[in-house]
Every structure is written in structure tokens, then in C-alpha cells.
Amino acid sequence: MIALSRVSKIYESSAGPVGVLRELDLTVAATETVAITGPSGSGKTTLLNLLGALDQPTSGTVTIDGVALGGLDPAAAARFRSRSIGFIFQLHYLLPQCSVLENVLVPRLAGAWTEAASTTLARAEALLEQVGLRDRMTHLPWQLSGGEQLRAAIARALINQPKIILADEPTGSLDPATGERIADLLLSTHAGARAALVVVTHNPALAQRMQKTYRLEAGRLVS
Ligand SMILES: Nc1ncnc2c1ncn2[C@@H]1O[C@H](COP(=O)(O)OP(=O)(O)OP(=O)(O)O)[C@@H](O)[C@H]1O
Ligand SMILES: [Mg+2]
Q1: Is 155 in the pocket of ligand 1 (CB under 6 A)?
Q2: What residue ranges define each of the domains in the chain, with the CATH number in brackets?
């Protein structure tokens, strides 16, 4: 599902180039679960952004579901992202003026979907039920706890039935018990979605529950 070949990423900044990823290789099978760990600044978010077609490598190729992302123009990349990728961001980016249910439906706003609105709505409600927010659908994000906001963001990431779920530090700011419930939820939603799951985390308990664990070191992944 995911194939990265000799991927390098060098950021250009006023202080000079910052080399982050160095000829990195990674393959992830269609329903595999993968954890990526590594110290702060090692390039984990950089790597997820490449997997999610939010950024492009300086060199090397990123192929997702048979599509070479390097060949896509920005509009095609955006279409691809909305159809194939479910992103759970380090900061959740829920829209403050929209209810929980509306936030889950936001990824449907872009793109020409042929599905009936009632079917989409039913799926959004089912996802919110699955993440335990059935009673919070009409609430605004600020009325939710941090863990609840994260669960809303998980439901939003799944609304377009992505082939790949990417999660950046999903348990970062949560207490251990809530973190464990989020891990349960990620794994159960992953199983239901039949997608690949790539999780960036500092949390060893979460990393351990993935089928494979890699560590980013000196710009490369080590098992
Ligand atoms: N746009 C940018 N321009 C220049 N340098 C950048 C840019 N984005 C990230 N970097 C640098 O690249 C390195 C990797 O950043 P990245 O965000 O991928 O780290 P991370 O492993 O996700 O860290 P954390 O665990 O703190 O989230 C850092 O040293 C960062 O300062
Ligand atoms: Mg990061």
C-alpha cells in the first residue's frame, strides 16, 4: 500500500539547509499497522507529511496504492489526499464554529462524491457512536475534553473510508488510561476500515501494540 524508496528531505531555511530524512526506505502492506518512534526533531512529522501527500520529498519516490505522488499536481494531490488518506493531526484542528457532527463531515465538502447525503450522514453518526461521542454530536469542540476532541478527529479521519490512516502523536497529551482507550479505538477502527495504519508516537505502550515498530535515527528507519 505504501512504498517509499530512497526518500530524502532537506528543508531550506534562512540558516541553511536542514537535512531530515536520508535515503529512507519503507513499505507498509494494505492492512498493516506500523509505529514510528524517535526523538523530537528526528523527522517523524516530516515523514507523515510525505505519506499523506502534504509535502514532497527532495529526492526519492513515494508510491501509495500504486500512485506515484511525485507526478501529481497540487489539485490532484489534494484529491488523492481526500480520497485515500485519513489524517489525525498532532493538533486536532477541529473547526470551532462547527458541531462535532459537522466537523466529521468536513472532509466531504471537497470533491465530487456520488454517495447520497443520507448515507454519508448515517456513516458519520455510526463513526461517532463507535468513538463514544453519540451524545456529543451537537456539541462544539470547546465543549469537549481533550480526549473527546481527539476521538472526534479520529471519526473525521475515517469519514471518507481512507486506505491509509496516519496519526501523529495521538496519545501525546492524554493520561495513560485515556491513552490506552485511544489505542483500543485506533486498532478497532483500523480493523473495521481495512486500511493501513501508521502511528507516530513517543508512547511505548501504543507502539508495542502495532505489528511493526520502527525508530527514526539519523534520517533512516531502523526496526
Ligand atoms: N519547514 C521547515 N523548515 C525548516 N526546518 C524544518 C521545517 N519543518 C521541520 N523542520 C525541522 O526538521 C526537523 C524534523 O522536524 P519534525 O517536525 O519532522 O520532527 P518530529 O520528529 O516530528 O519532532 P516532534 O517529536 O517534536 O514532533 C526538525 O529539526 C525541524 O526543526
Ligand atoms: Mg512531530
Answers
A1: no
A2: 30-56+71-222 (3.40.50.300)
